[in-house]
Amino acid sequence: MVAVAHPAAAEAGRSILRQGGSAVDAAIAMQMVLTLVEPQSSGIGGGGFLLHFNAASGAIDSYDGRETAPASAGPDRFLGSDGQPLPFSEVMPGGLSVGVPGVLRMLELAHSAHGNLPWRDLFQPAIALAEEGFTVSPRLAGRIAGDALLAEQPSTRRYFFSADGAPLAAGARRTNPALARTLRLIADGGADAFYLGSPARNIVDAVATATPRSGDLTLADFAAYRAQRRAALCLDYRTTKVCSMGPPTSGGLAVLQILGMLRRFDLAGMAPDGVDARHLIAEASRLAFADRERYVADPAFAVVPVERLLDAGYLAARAAIIDPDKAMEEAEPGRPLDSAEIGTLPPATALLPEIPSTSHMSIVDAAGNAVSFTSSVEGPFGSHVMVDGFLLNNQLTDFSFVPASRGRATANRVEPGKRPRSSMAPTLVLDRDSGEFLAAVGSPGGPNIIGYVVQTLIGLIDWQRDPYAAIASPHTLNRNGPTLVEADAGLESLADELAARGHAIKVQDLESGANVIIRQGETLLGASDPRREGVALAD
Q1: Domain architecture of the chain: domains with CATH
Q2: 405: which strand partners?
Q3: How many Å is the Cα radius of gyration of the chain?
Q4: 3-class secondary-structure state, position 133
Q5: What is the pLDDT of residues 83-126, one digit of tens each?
Q6: Measured between alpha carbons, how far is 65 from 46 in angstroms, rounded to an integer?
Q7: What does the alpha-carbon distance between residue 346 and residue 158 come to, in Å, rounded to a whole number?
Q8: What's the CA gap between 252 and 243, in Å, rounded?
Q9: What are the phi and psi torsion angles at 535 (to 5°)?
Q10: Strand arrangement of the beta sheet that strand 515-520 belongs to
Q11: Which of 478, 473, 479, 467 is nearest to 442 (CA)?
Q12: How far apart are CA 439 and CA 431, in angstroms?
């Protein structure tokens, strides 16, 4: 089974599985198709995080393909001449926000360990679709029409608009021969063809001449990039073992912290989606986000006390702060370290925008191996710089724009070769006792990813919902501020009840895009979030 954000990608993934491909093989094929048909969300110009479950051994491997800052990048990268942070809208488009893309190196690393089919074969569905043409979806058409920046960049204007200046409409056919050539090059030459060949040279040139702000990526930055194989983070929750991705993403750690704090509450005995449960989830989220802002950054550049943040005693102490009947004020970060250790750590930083683009896929192959894979170019259409048929990311805007606070450098500041903090949270769920696979879960959505994944997991585990019900349920979220309530979701009475418990309420669109697969006995059940245009396909 595959569950992914676009029907064309799902068809490609299922085709690979039918040929005897592994879950990783299908992930590669689907990512290449998404580069073409969902360019606003992910692609080979971006990065991602992937978890793999090995059905034979029970092992979980996690792969980090997060982008890196160029060697010339410094902490003042996003400061103006007055020393103040530049507006996000001014640095997101153009070359300054572009990091070295990581997804191809990461997928090649995962394929070397878990692939069945030849690397070259996995690119053929996307190459054929790019040459023959694909149908522009309503979602893509809406994104193009609503993004004024696309018309300002010559490369994106040529691709996303017709000769008379009209944005591509839903139902239009679009070919992308430049992307087909790029994918064929990578198919034949591996990731080296991208990082050491003409795509890297063309990216460097495009970034150096991009407007409104140029960037400083070099060929040496591309040659130096390495994907990382990391240990997955896991935590026991009820009868399950929930595993996710560790830093430099904050997503997996925050998800596990929230679940760990909620263990002391009988959510299963509460009304699904009722005010009691939603209040507790919001309060645990406040506490996790406070820790996220204080402690999480690239572990190669900062000490991230992951084990202590997930320690059962620490989480129990944090959970004891939660009042079941009253919302707290803004939560303070906890103290997983002693005072002397905390004093050496960088200070917390303000939450920056993380535009809710991104894409997620879940996969289970015929052998029972599973993949949960979240990838992104950051904002819709990334940096709005297009090279060789694909868009470049703007992931460097995930760094803190403020390099220092209270006399100390911030943990998530820009540094050469550093990976910016993320919120992506690809997740796998196993039976706590047997170690058997139970679910693959994940979602796009910027910092809201954490809440979307938590809500889905609680729906599946505590309330025993089917995958569709778990991901279609209306959202309420908290990022250590107002409680966000999904607009037009029939939550007016719930919002009033939360407000009565002291929550400041903010109603807004909460466009998740979860893709979930669960196993029940010998049966797989899958679903794709109805808020987007994805689909689950199976044999």
Answers
A1: 2-229+377-407 (no CATH), 230-353+422-525 (1.10.246.130)
A2: 408
A3: 22
A4: coil
A5: 999 999 899 999 999 999 999 999 999 999 999 999 999 999 99
A6: 9
A7: 45
A8: 8
A9: -160, 150
A10: 233-237, 240-244, 427-431, 437-441, 515-520, 523-528
A11: 467
A12: 9
The span from the CA of 365 to the CA of 227, in Å, is: 24
Question: What is the pTM for the complete model shown?
Answer: 0.96
Q: Are 39 and 136 in contact (CB under 8 A)?
A: no
Between the two ends of the chain, the Cα-to-Cα distance in Å is 7
Catalytic residue selected from 358, 410, 476, 483: 358
What is the C-alpha separation between 526 and 514, in angstroms, rounded?
11
- The residue whose two tokens read 């491997």 is 61
Query: Is residue 35 within 8 Å of 179, Cβ to Cβ?
Result: yes
Residue 360, both tokens: 């997620």
Residue 279 confidence (pLDDT) above 50: yes
Which residue, 242, 239, 244, 328, is CA-closest to 280? 328
Using one digit for the tens of pLDDT, what is the confidence trace for 321-368?
999 999 999 999 998 865 445 444 544 444 444 455 799 999 999 999
Distances (CA, A) of 531 to 139, 358, 475: 10, 14, 11
Residue 130 contacts residue 36 (beta carbons within 8 Å): yes
- Under a CB-based contact definition with an 8 Å cutoff, are residues 451 and 285 in contact? yes
3-state secondary structure of 277: helix
Considering only 23-32, 119-128, 368-377, 408-417, which range has the smallest mean pLDDT?
Answer: 408-417
240 included as an active-site residue: no
Tokens linked to 37: 């048909």
Cα gap 467→472, rounded to integer Å:
8
Host H or E run for residue 452:
helix 449-461
